[in-house]
Amino acid sequence: MNDYPSLKLNSGKEKSLQRFHPWVFSGALAKDIKHSPEGSLVNVEDNKGNYLGTGYVQHGSIAVRILSFVKTEINQDFWNNAVQSSWDMRQRLGFTDNTLTNCFRLMHGEGDYIPGLVIDYYAGTCVIQCHTSGIYAHRDLITQALINVLGKQLKAVFDKSFETLHGAVPEAANGFLYGQQEDKMVLENGHQFKVDFTTGQKTGFFIDQRDNRQLVGQYSKGKTVLNTFAYTGGFSVYALMHQALQVDSVDVSKSAIELLNENMATNSPNATNHQGIAADTFNYFKTFETQYDIVILDPPAFAKNRGAKHNALMGYKRLNMEGLKYVKKGGLLFTFSCSQVVDSFTFNQTILSAAIESKRSIKILHRLTQPADHPVNIYHPESEYLKGLVLMVE
Fold it and tell me: Whole-model pTM?
């Protein structure tokens, strides 16, 4: 039980919560929530006073994010149970004692029933990203829960929430909440990667492409590969280690290319068939004419919110039209979107439009998504954010 203040919904607005969707939109509330402090805990009720869920307030279109559909106190026990549940699931899936892969997502926001919280595990270091002030207020309890649950398998906890809070907590700063670790060397399917969790993108590495990188590797033997938006070279390392003939990696960030080259050298010290190119992908397409057996398009999220969706779709279409030009006849295009507001159907239709304008015969070989440590909450389809297609281009 708890004694948190209550927020009532307008009549008929309780149905989504009764279906266990964890978001309450501002238009569903009977009263404005400006009087409720950002991040404060509340109970949500229907217009008759029946309890629906407990969550935290956020001043925006999503007014409340639900942490529990059972009336409970959000205390240390709550966080212990949440972390334990997520850890147990990864243990059952074989992530926690895998000798070939020692990095995985431990907490995936709504997918693990904790909206606004991401935790990635890197060989003993947990990197936390709080996407909301409501979660940030509980970071010390979350850290203690990690200590309680992981025990000796936890060496450090690093808070990397400054970027994801977008100014919602002015005093927020990245730093260690427990222990102290330098940037990590981790294993993924036996390949080595240096993870820059202090200054790198997201939590330092894009763990969500693990399975899709493995698929690229399977197709790469004897092939030429172009990896765009390459970041620190995940796809490139897999291609090279699976005996690709040549791998070219393009990313606009010079520091990312430096770390990419370091990762390539770590995995294949004597390789001469890789080239790291610091350039904007669209500019690179304008100046380069070589075609490849495999082209990988894995851009950052073009749409952060629904207002940017139209422009994002135009961007995906343009990118794929350009990318298709650089695929040899009979070659493969791996194309992705990580924009949550772009659903699979819309993404597929956008790729269809690009294919039509390219005037090439194209077959879909694979439909790709995120791996099992990034679970999708069946009541929250938005948690399925990663979409991908593997296309054979004639």
Answer: 0.94
Query: What is the C-alpha separation between 153 and 350, in angstroms, rounded?
Result: 44
Per-residue model confidence as pLDDT tens digits over 150-182: 999 999 999 999 999 988 999 999 999 999 987
In the chain, ranges of CATH 2.30.130.10 domains: 6-68
**DSSP-assigned states of every residue in 249-307:** EEES-HHHHHHHHHHHHHH-TT--SEEEEES-HHHHHHH----EEEEEE-PPPS-SSGG
Residue 249: which of 278, 217, 290 has the closest Cα? 278
CA-CA distance, 174 to 167, in Å (whole number)? 13
Domain 76-187 has CATH 3.40.50.1370: no
CA distances from 304 to 89, 229, 310 (A): 29, 17, 11
Q: Which two tokens stand for residue 100?
A: 């070939």
Task: Tell me: pLDDT of 251 over 90.
Answer: yes
Q: Measured between alpha carbons, how far is 115 from 382 in angstroms, rounded to an integer?
A: 11
Sort 337 into a burial class: Cβ within 10 Å, 0-12 / 13-18 / 19+. buried
According to DSSP, the β-strands at 156-159 and 175-178 are: antiparallel
Per-residue pLDDT band for 271 (boundaries 50, 70, 90) equals confident
* 134 in Cβ contact with 56 (< 8 Å): yes
Q: Is 9 within 8 Å of 28 (Cβ atoms)?
A: yes
Pairwise CA distance, residues 381 & 20, whole Å:
11
Residues of the chain with CATH 3.40.50.150: 206-393
Query: CATH for 6-68?
Result: 2.30.130.10
Residues 6 or more apart whose Cβ sits within 8 Å of residue 344: 367, 384, 387
Q: What is the DSSP letter of 377?
A: P
Evaluate whether 50 touches 7 at the Cβ level (below 8 Å). no
CATH number belonging to the domain at 206-393, selected among 3.40.50.150, 3.90.1150.10, 1.10.630.10, 3.40.50.720: 3.40.50.150
71-85 mean pLDDT: 98
Average of per-residue pLDDT across 194-210:
92
Task: Look up tokens 């969707």; give the residue.
Answer: 21
DSSP letters spanning 327-376: EEEEEEEEEEE--TTS-HHHHHHHHHHHHHHHT--EEEEEEE---TTSPP
